[in-house]
Write a structure and sequence with these properties.
267 residues, mainly beta, globular
Length: 267
Amino acid sequence: MKKRLALVTTSSIASLALLVGCSGAPATPADQAPGNGAPTAGAPATNTPGTTEPGTTPAPAASEPAAPAGGVTLPGTTVGETVDTDAFFNAMGEGMKAATTYTEVTTSQITLGESSTTLVTTTQVDVTDPAHYKAHSVTETDGTVDSESVIDGTTMYTKTEGGDWKSEELAGSVDELNSGLGEVGADVREAATVTYQGEEDVNGTSTRKYEVAIDMGGSIGTLTNTYWLDSRGIALKSVSGVGVAGSTNETIKTKIGEPVEIVVPQV
């Protein structure tokens, strides 16, 4: 039996798939974009964007945050500001492509009535070779390991605790998978409202926080996800709903760019 090829990556992709990966804030003023610091030495503090006095460098326009070296331009300058949807999704798409190896931990809190279950999935991902996607996931339910999976190209291997490995071919191809990596369709972009929430640290790394509200229409209403993007556009943290009232997913991405070893089971 074949399954549609799917990513076992960030919850940012997982939450968007429904439609179509913090400590206190630093001392940077809330209305100042990263990369838009004070004017260059020698420039008057009152220098306005678009004007230049002899021997000075004009301050960049507040609406145009500069991209850091090796990074992407992240939209937003003022907390609570609605930012350009395309700019946000394009930046996050570049981040997805930039993270070729990483480890992420997704914690899902499922609440049904008075009962609550915690699922923790730890996934190592290796897309160093774009033509050969690899991932290894281990899922725990309330602290007990109950399943494990490996994706090697277009083959998925799965097993439950105490069971044997089983394999199956995934429908589609790795090329099809990679061609859509980081891309968000026009329908999602049109239905989304992205709000800049300011700067926050995630595990010691400065990020920019965004709330993405997507109008699903009908009885579903609005789906709200929150993302913390670093200077490369990589979502170091994301929080999303899972379709059940009071239930959430939280994903933390670490060890970006570090070597991973994914052992393919022998079946």
